[in-house]
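Researcher: Re-running this chain for the archive, since the previous output was lost when a drive failed. Same request as before.
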Amino acid sequence: MPEKRAYRILTIADNDSAIPELEAMLGDEPAATFNFTPGKPDELSRVLRGNDTFDVAVLDLDHCYTPDLAVIPELHEHSPGLPLVVLNQQADVDYSILALRKGAQDYLDKRHCNSAHLFHAIRYAMERARYLRKIAELPTYEPLTGLANRLLLDDRLEQAIERASRNRTGIAVLYIDLDNFRRIDEQLGRRRSDKLLRQTADRIRNCLRGCDTVARVGGDEFVVLLESANHAHGAGSVASKVISALSRHMVTDGKAVVTGCSIGISLFPQCGRNINDLIYKAELARCRAYAEGGSRYCFYTGNMDTEFIHVMNLENELANALERKEFCLHYQPRFNLNNARVCGSEALLCWNHPRLGLLLPEDFMHYLENRSIVHEVGEWILETACETSKRWHQSGLCVGPMSVNITARQLLDRNFVDTVERVLDKTGLPSCLLELEVTEQTLINNEEVCSRQLQDLRKIGVSISVDDFGTGHCSFDYLRNFLVDTIKLDRSLIEHIGHRSTDSTITTAIVRLARDLHVNVVADGVDNIDQFKLLFDMAVDEMQGNFLSPAMPPTSLRNYLLTNGLELNLMFESDLKMAV
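Model: Regenerated structure tokens:
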């Protein structure tokens, strides 16, 4: 029969009954014997000087409850590395986590503790103390932001899983990724990007409790561990706070930058019972949040593994879509409300996917914009749209300028103006018949570079439109600085214009101020008659949307215009017809 292991236990309590209680609790343990040495909090120095060979210390807090747990660091100051188990009857999860942060290896609620639980906790504390001594020489904090690194995150997550399994509580893991940081990093340079990351870390930290953990696990990727997260609502509330904090602009060397973030959330035990599962599934949920437009959070659901494979395949297929001639352009006309005639058209990139059929821009553009091939695809769009516009005008269809969307990466390319000039020369389209659309967010994040590029484009006769205007941080000062010709109201304003009074108020104010600045206003995404009427009453200059005309292939649009003419042809009530 194997010999029992003897454990030397230091018991710290101001209650004389603690020793008998522990002896009684551990007396039936068949695999070990225990030698107890009592000590009171104010006698630590004397007790430890007399015997410094304890295997573990047990701190009984029933009668020496101290909110700051000062006795723990004091104990470790006298005896560094001594394993420590905390016993308490307080139903305070945050307090237990604080004890662990102070240096305890395990925490037990005495109300639900028996011999097996306590013996397990003692052995676990000793094993963790050995592990911590082993990793003590390794770095556990990330030097740029001062946050925990992946090593420390894994350690704390492992502890959290152990406690949650024992106490039947929950854990939430939040995977945070800054939206479009790669592009911002290219524009700002390393030094400014590092400052941005430090500000990001501070803002995330300020959204959390002291007992939560936030780690930096990649260039612009962060993971948050929330213990005692028994409800999805609590994790969602924290995610909302982080999104709100990171949506406000940050300043680096006097330059304002807006990043935004996408967050994925996984829950223990619903989404997995180990470190890798929880982090992996939180990352999958983050991918879904970004695919839905970013600046939002998503919880992991069981079908996301399949969706992730779908997205990966889609991104890989995008790389060869241009070479395989799978891209095509559809065109949506724009109507001038002063004369009810077609006054322009917008080129929209579509993808004739070999398996999935025709994909619209919203199905894949956010994947394309972050890939290097966006320059090559962008030039193909520009040249194809200009060639189409040239043919229409040569055949007598004076449909106004052709509008082409350009990405931030294209606009920030120092050769972009030369590319536009080359395309205009090649296609023979007059520069006054080309309009380039840039998003409001691009202007905000790249003010200095955009200002130079847009001025050079205007010098060659190209007009400039700001897309998605009205919901970001762009002010009319930007419109004066960039000398833009047109703003297109953000679709979210149009979508809710008849239902949310604030959207109607904002839209009316934008239209009035734009008129004062002699800037053309286009309402994009007009999908029903109610939206049309409201926007018509606000006196926007132009409209575009499926209610007026859907986007269609070039031949279909040409035939439509030849058949119906350039006039707006809608079946409205007679009074609306008279107004138009």
